[in-house]
Amino acid sequence: MDRFDRRTILKSIAVMAAASAFPACSDSITSGTDAEGLARFPQGVASGDPKQTMVILWTRVVNVGSIPVDLPLRLEVALDSGFSQLVVQKDDLTATVAHDSCIKVRVKGLKAATTYFYRFSLVQGRTRYLSTAGRTRTAPEASADVTVRFTVANCQDYVGRYWNSYQQMLTAAPEDLDFFLSIGDYIYETTNTFGTAAGVRTITFTNPSEAIDLGGGNLAAKSVGNYRDLYRIYRSDPVLQQVHARWPIIVTWDDHEYSDDCWGSTGTYFNGRKNEKDDDRRRNAEQAFFEYLPIDEGTPGSDPQIDVFTTERAQLYPNQKLWRSFVFGMHLQLVVTDYRSFRPDHPVPEDAFPGTVVADQATLVALLGQAAFDANFPPGLAEYIDVDQPENSGLQSTLAGIAAAGAEQEGLSLSDAHAWAQRNIRGKLAVLVVNQMLAAANQRPISADGLERGLFYALIGKQSFFTQYGSRYVVVKSSYDLYTALLYARTAKASENAFGTEQESFIVDTLTKSTATHKVLISSVSLVSMQLNLTGIPGVPVQFARAFYFDVDQWDGFPNKRAELLGKLSGVQNLIALSGDIHGSFAGNEKASSPKIALLTAPAISSQTVGESVGAAVTTFSSDPAFQPGGAVYEALVTGLPQLFQAATDGALKLVDTTSHGFLTVAIDATKAHATFTFIPKDEVTTDYSKKPADELQKKVTTASFDVVGGQLTPVVS
Questions:
Q1: What pTM was estimated for this model as a whole?
Q2: For residues 499 and 337, is the Cβ–Cβ distance under 8 A?
Q3: Closest-CA residue to 258 (of 234, 235, 230)
Q4: I need a surface site. Which of 92, 221, 264, 651 has the fewest CB within 10 A?
């Protein structure tokens, strides 16, 4: 008898496992229990990207008790929940191990504006195991004069948090919603996003050695297996499963589906201390995203009824095109965008040297005029010296040594620290920063007398070598606006080309040519300008008594492109921009003088609110009493945060909420868009209300509603 080697044994096991997936030679097939079905379809079902005659259906199947193998499934689609009026019954649809046993099916030939029920099933032995039954709905014909209803969700951190917002959506949202929008941060890529991992609802990677170690026990997904782990865990939540089973989803990503504050394939965890560009990691994230979400991809096949399709590696970054458009009747055209894949780096790099001059005196005088230049760049503040000049070679060498030592203290290796210093200690450098470095090294300062003046990174807010502050967060508005305008001109607009040329052309072309009554632009990040003006507030230290942009990872970071884009869309009637990302709620216009476009930013499902984030940042920024509870800065930025945001738009914002979770519901008809914000206090996020009577959560809920016509928002009092 021949010996079986290890490979032969494994092959034999796989063959036997696959064979067990097929029915035995008998006509007697029994039905498994609901629990047995759930064990085989542990992430439930989902539908998405509804069109007039087609929809995408999804599930994931598990080969219980054996190794993973490709499994043949049956799909049933019916007009009734009892599946007596079948319109599709298709066998031998294969869920492949290569795609984590997920399957996506494009069902075609359906009727518009019709509710369908669907389920998958698997036969093993003599038992047929059923998935949960899902409900979906096709879009109405473009000529249909009907009301369209949908909800908007975003930012659903899992760790230590419950999805009570979804629980309330299931309770209060209309059963006949046409779809729900998920507009970013469907997952968070780390195991401990907001420091709430203790106790319940934790994330554990199957292979943690494949992840990125962020320190403090926090890991970030890197491999495709890491990202799949996240989706398996998120989609195992029974409340989220119910939402997916009830309504089709239309989804786009923001940053956390890949990496916090990313641009293209570049992450930002280490703030410039290392090169975080990683095309393979980006493709791993996208592969899991497309595997686990019912997004239409590619061109429908020749089969008139069914296409099973998969996402292949070659389709992913930088080749994917997530942007797309949907028409729902006469009154709604929806344009879904991708803000992350093609955008450039943040204008102020995280590793920028604070003293680097980005605009010299000649440039600024030509732009501003002499009087304005003198007023904004007075003597004693903005002088600079050119260390590349031969007479300054000794100073350059000294500064390079100091900078290298500082970079090494920040975590760079000796060679990387010296390389960083050589790149940055060159050209025109601010005397203010130079003298701070010399003082720290007990060296004599240099004189600023008679030197030219200019704009340098520290005047924008960049105060240290490797940091997100002064780069992605909290920049001085006036200096940042000046710098980005110059950069925008110097780079022929490339510095703010957030959507990329092809996508922007699609967006503008689709919206300007749309004949729908209402047009909705989906941007994962908010178009609302979030400014913090601390001027004139008693007790604020003088160096902080100025206006700041709070978050320039979003559209405030690209002010020139935002103005240009909104200008191109200014002639579009009844345009609404829907956004998320910031973990707060906003309703209004960009400013009082521009009511053409209504801006609605939906609250986070569960992630730390913007009010909490600001509060934590303020108290850790400085031990100065002004930054602690009761101090002037704390009270302005934490207690008065909504008022600061509203003041920046001259009253154009009708609603600001910085402390609540929730979702947004929108109903659109021939005359108006009706938007209702549903709010749940942030402190309820650690309580699982799915285990409590429905009225317990309802007692915590508040709402705010607006009618939107021609970009104008009118509060509706219930």
A1: 0.94
A2: yes
A3: 230
A4: 92
